[in-house]
Amino acid sequence: MPARFTDAHNHLQDTRLDPHRAELLRSLPAIVSHAVVNGTRESDWPAVAALAREHPWITPSFGLHPWHVNTRTSSWKTALLAHLDANPRAAIGEIGLDRWIEGHDLAAQTECLRSQLAIAAERDLPATIHCIRAWGALADALASSALPARGFLIHAYAGPAEMVPGFVKMGAFFSFSPSFLHERKSAQRETFRQIPADRLLAETDAPDLAPPPDQNPHPLESPDHTPINHPANIATAFHALAQLRATPIEDLRALIATNFTCLFGA
Predict the structure, then answer these.
(1) Under CATH, to which class is 5-264 assigned?
(2) Which terminus has fewer CB within 10 Å in the chain: N or C?
(3) What is the pLDDT of residues 8-27, one digit of tens each?
(4) CA–CA distance, 49 with 17 (Å, rounded to integer)
């Protein structure tokens, strides 16, 4: 089998992928050696767990996303711990902070983020962090929280380049998204030229964050015919990152496989 790619962040459980999931799960192992599938709320954690039980190349990740903190039940942490106990290979994610969403409650988001980071630190589990328009708040929360010794991922990193060294000192990895190929994402591309090699990962965030149509070899639609991101676009992300960093694709693939194992395990 030819060398394959690692996808550090996606959402294969997402209902937008329902019509395609069976075919994706059949075809993806030829392209992807490991993928981290992230839950975002209590209601989708069982689907993530089921995918991981059936497909050993999937690492399950359970977390309360900042978009869903206001839907959490009083027993959300108990449910999270139960999923972690039942899935020894699990990570924590997707968690984080987001000031972009309408009606955001940053205080509640921060409380949930800190609670989940504490669990990750206590169990030394990898954590995957989402952040939009809250970079200072995220830096403050990380600096004042216990963090997992193995590190954490800031997925689809779109923060300021000057904040990268501080996040690295705290243990951050950073994943490159195929959506960074959009013309308006030149700042993100430039940032990923500078990120230390031992902190690089790649992701799809499928079904979100698709590449631009003219650089998308795997067009896909949700049931309502909205374009969505195909998880096979992990190859697009790798090839774009290799070109961006002037690195042979096989060297980059080996480097990122090592980084992936360092953070998420084999």
Answers:
(1) alpha beta
(2) N
(3) 999 999 999 999 999 999 99
(4) 16
70 residue type, one letter: N
Phi, psi at residue 221, to the nearest 5°?
-125, 145
**Full-prediction pTM beyond 0.70?**
yes
CB 181 within 8 A of CB 212: yes
Identify which of 3, 16, 28 has the alpha carbon closest to the alpha carbon of residue 209. 16
Q: What integer is the mean pLDDT of 141-170? A: 98
Q: How many Å apart are CA 121 and CA 224, to the nearest integer?
A: 40
Rounded distance between C-alpha atoms, residue 60 and residue 92, angstroms: 8
Handedness of CA 52, 58, 59, 65 (dihedral sign): negative
d(CA 262, CA 106): 31
Find out whether the peptide bond into 42 is cis, omega within 30 degrees of 0.
no
- For 236, other C-beta atoms within 10 Å of its C-beta total 23
